[in-house]
From TrEMBL:
It catalyses: ATP-independent breakage of single-stranded DNA, followed by passage and rejoining. Belongs to the type IA topoisomerase family. Releases the supercoiling and torsional tension of DNA, which is introduced during the DNA replication and transcription, by transiently cleaving and rejoining one strand of the DNA duplex. Introduces a single-strand break via transesterification at a target site in duplex DNA. The scissile phosphodiester is attacked by the catalytic tyrosine of the enzyme, resulting in the formation of a DNA-(5'-phosphotyrosyl)-enzyme intermediate and the expulsion of a 3'-OH DNA strand. The free DNA strand then undergoes passage around the unbroken strand, thus removing DNA supercoils. Its EC number is 5.6.2.1. SUPFAM superfamilies: Prokaryotic type I DNA topoisomerase (SSF56712). One of its GO terms (molecular function) is metal ion binding. CDD domains: TOP1Ac, TOPRIM_TopoIA_TopoI. This is DNA topoisomerase 1. Residues 132-568 form the Topo IA-type catalytic domain. The record marks 33, 142, 146, 151, 158, 316, 499 as: Interaction with DNA. SMART domains: TOP1Ac (SM00437), TOP1Bc (SM00436), TOPRIM (SM00493). It comes from Anabaenopsis circularis NIES-21. Residues 3-121 form the Toprim domain. The gene is topA. Gene3D superfamilies: 3.40.50.140, Topoisomerase I, domain 2, Topoisomerase I, domain 3, Topoisomerase I, domain 4.
């Protein structure tokens, strides 16, 4: 009979852990958080702050949690020992504490492992520790902070009466970043400039660099950073030094044609580019977004499944550390399959100051596992994510890439021209993680060599507004500014989309009118809460609590007393006015359609929208209210929404006509229901019972066809209703 109970978070781990631990163990799952702060007390906060102390009232999250708690209590009474094995992070430690509380455990054993493999799990079981109450305190403080801001801040935006639903400690600061960028785009004024270049018969193009007497002696430095949020084709086309007038560009071209050209400087140097670190949560989300086009929350769902299957280590981490065992295995794999890529010394990578160094980076648990077998076992998206994690982990253990960078500087008269080239001499880590620019080969020339001008010309260009953030870029920005932590990046972005504050437009996040209005109001009501530095300080305080350097109850009390309570009082005095967001959006330039407004006769604007088939609808931006038209495939014309169509004066529905056919679900008679679709009168059969709105009746719908009544769910209808 089993003597020990292991409690984990996810049900997906139960089967594999049961296989590892054997018959002496019962493995059960809490299914994530089992308790939450109640909705009792002042403002339904579920906690009370009094004289520097905080008293929390936790209750089961829902009916399923109640049942889970009862089941765990029953099983815990049947065993000699309960071991808590929730996830190895701050959130997991807090869940372990909640389990201790509901199961009445005095000093439970806490075990952590970063991968679900037999060796890692058994090693963890053999080396249990006590609950870390510093981590628990940080988790409880985050709970209270988030509820305090959400429950007391959200009513402020409800007063806008525009559909705004919530304010959030991390959510609102992240929304502000997106809205700030949108305002920069709206107010951006493009400027013309010219790129000037010369083509040589020797086989290369050089770009205007300046004049001989205007250049400083300091050499230009090139810095290349590993950018996981960048797309695969992130290399920019080369340009000259910007020329700000057409007349000046024409003058430079003429001067280039009038004077002979000569090489004044040739430089070739070998550059070593070090491998990137293995993935942490944020870089995994960035790379999966840019390479696999996965949203951050989708990436984490897939990574969770890979972790539960024992294929990768824990996916919520901010440490780039790898275990010595994995490093040895990776080196062995390289020695067997790619011996030229085995480095004398592996590149060292530094984690962020706030990273939990006890954790590992995200890596495969078995670097030798054949991918051919996994391709058969895993869904395509999981397999692609696994391969990406595998390649990145192996790349981090490889030799540096070796590049030959060349530069040729020529002159004609007083003008200097520059050409840059790059050739990859040894790919190194880039065999597995290629983030190098494409080869650009320059011919061999000598200093002092005369060159033959083939062409000189200029190209007119225009400065571009800063781009909107893609989801990977936003996660990267949140990490750099210290907004949130690995576990909050993905849910924050998902919440902003769910609330209708932002939407994806051509792969980038664009604030909606609602999002801009909320941000506009919060800038007046709670400005500090939107500042990245302010939010980052709160995260740093939570880190200090987790490290045992600060009391969580004291921090929460002080933060509420010194900042939040007075800020709320001031926020409630802000006058609700029509948002300037609408005004700023009205200034945006939209493409104009050939259809005119029925009221003012001006051409309607094309408003982009991913929710309609044509990808845009028409709207009057000249001041006419509620003039919106949508494309109708039926009439092949632009039509107002059905709610705006003119209805006949007598639009009462005739009484329903019962048929002789019984409902396939409840056997009551089907009734004939008349309706209008795309301007045509149509009839269908549906159940006549008042209960037809329930889920069982969802698919009870028969449509008139040439052969009789037919249902997509139940097929053709005969006299017996079959």
């Amino acid at each position: 009979m089993p003597k020990r109970l292991l409690v984990v978070e996810s049900p997906g781990k139960v089967k594999k852990l049961s296989q590892i631990l054997g018959a002496d163990w019962i493995v059960r799952a809490s299914c994530g958080h089992i308790r939450e702060l109640s909705d009792t007390g002042e403002d339904s906060l579920g906690f009370v702050i009094n004289d520097g102390s905080v008293k929390c009232n936790y209750v089961p999250r829902d009916q399923r949690s109640k049942e889970t708690i009862q089941q765990l209590k029953a099983v815990s009474k049947q065993v000699d020992e309960v071991v808590l094995a929730t996830d190895p992070d701050r959130e997991g430690e807090t869940i372990a504490w909640h389990l201790k509380e509901v199961l009445g455990l005095r000093e439970p054993k806490r075990v952590i492992y970063s991968e679900i493999t037999a060796s890692a799990v058994r090693s963890a079981i053999a080396n249990p520790r006590k609950l870390d109450f510093n981590l628990v305190g940080a988790g409880l403080c985050r709970d209270c902070l988030d509820k305090l801001v959400g429950y007391k801040g959200s009513p402020l935006v409800w007063a806008l009466n525009n559909g705004a639903k919530s304010v959030g400690r991390v959510q609102s600061a992240t929304l502000h970043l997106i809205c700030q960028r949108e305002r920069e785009i709206v107010t951006f004024v493009p400027q013309d400039y010219w790129s000037v270049w010369v083509d040589y018969a020797e086989g290369f193009r050089a770009f205007y660099k300046g004049t001989a007497n205007s250049l400083s002696d300091a050499p230009e430095t090139e810095t290349e950073a590993h950018d996981d949020a960048a797309g695969n084709n992130n290399t920019q086309a080369p340009e000259s030094k910007r020329v700000l007038s057409e007349a000046e560009a024409t003058r430079l071209v003429e001067e280039a044609r009038q004077h002979p050209h000569q090489v004044v400087h040739v430089e070739g140097k070998t550059v070593y580019r070090q491998p990137p670190p293995p993935f942490i949560t944020s870089t995994l989300q960035q790379a999966a977004g840019s390479k696999l086009k996965l949203a951050p929350d989708k990436t984490m769902v897939l990574a969770q499944k890979l972790y539960e299957a024992g294929l990768i280590t824990y996916m919520r981490t901010d440490s780039v550390m790898l275990s010595p065992e994995f490093c040895a295995a990776a080196r062995q794999w390289l020695e067997e399959h790619d011996p030229q890529n085995v480095p004398q010394q592996v590149a060292k990578h530094r984690s962020a100051k706030t990273a939990q160094e006890a954790h590992e980076a995200i890596r495969p648990t078995d670097v030798f596992r054949p991918s051919v077998q996994l391709r058969q076992e895993l869904p395509a998206e999981e397999f692609d994510l696994y391969v990406m994690i595998w390649k990145r982990a192996i790349a981090s253990q490889c030799r540096a890439a070796q590049l030959c960078k060349t530069q040729i500087i020529t002159h004609s008269g007083s003008l200097l021209w520059q050409a840059r080239g790059q050739v990859v001499e040894f790919y190194g880590y880039a065999r597995y993680w290629n983030n190098l620019s494409k080869d650009s080969v320059l011919p061999l020339v000598q200093q002092g060599q005369a060159l033959t001008l083939e062409n000189a010309n200029s190209e007119k260009k225009q400065t571009q507004p800063p781009p909107r953030y893609s989801e990977p870029k936003l996660v990267q920005l949140m990490e750099r500014k210290g907004i949130g932590r690995p576990s909050t990046f993905a849910p924050t972005v998902a919440t902003l989309k769910k609330r209708g504050y932002v939407e994806l437009t051509k792969g980038n996040l664009q604030p909606t009118t609602l999002g801009l209005e909320v941000d506009d109001f919060l800038q007046k009501a709670l400005p500090d809460l939107l500042e990245a530095e302010f939010t980052a300080k709160m995260e740093s305080a939570l880190d200090a609590i987790a490290a045992g350097k600060q009391s969580w109850q004291q921090y929460l009390t002080t933060w509420n007393q010194n900042y939040f309570a007075p800020a709320l009082v001031k926020a409630k005095t802000v006058v609700i006015t029509p948002s300037s967001a609408k005004t700023s959006l009205a200034k945006r330039k939209y493409d104009t359609s050939k259809t005119r407004c029925p009221e003012c006769n001006n051409f309607l604007a094309k408003i982009p929208s991913s929710k309609v088939k044509k990808k845009y609808f028409l709207k009057c931006t000249s001041g006419c209210a509620n003039i919106v038209l949508f494309w109708s495939d039926f009439s092949k014309s632009w039509q107002p929404p059905r709610t705006q169509e003119t209805k006949p004066e007598n639009h009462s529905q005739p009484p329903a006509k019962l048929s002789s056919y019984p409902c396939p679900v409840c056997k009551k008679p089907l009734e004939e229901y008349s309706y209008t679709k795309d301007g045509q009168n149509k009839t269908m059969l549906r159940c006549s019972a008042a209960s037809r709105q329930d889920k069982k009746h969802k698919d009870v719908a028969y449509f008139s066809t040439a052969k009789g009544w037919w249902s997509p769910k139940f097929g053709e209808l005969n006299s017996e209703g079959k």
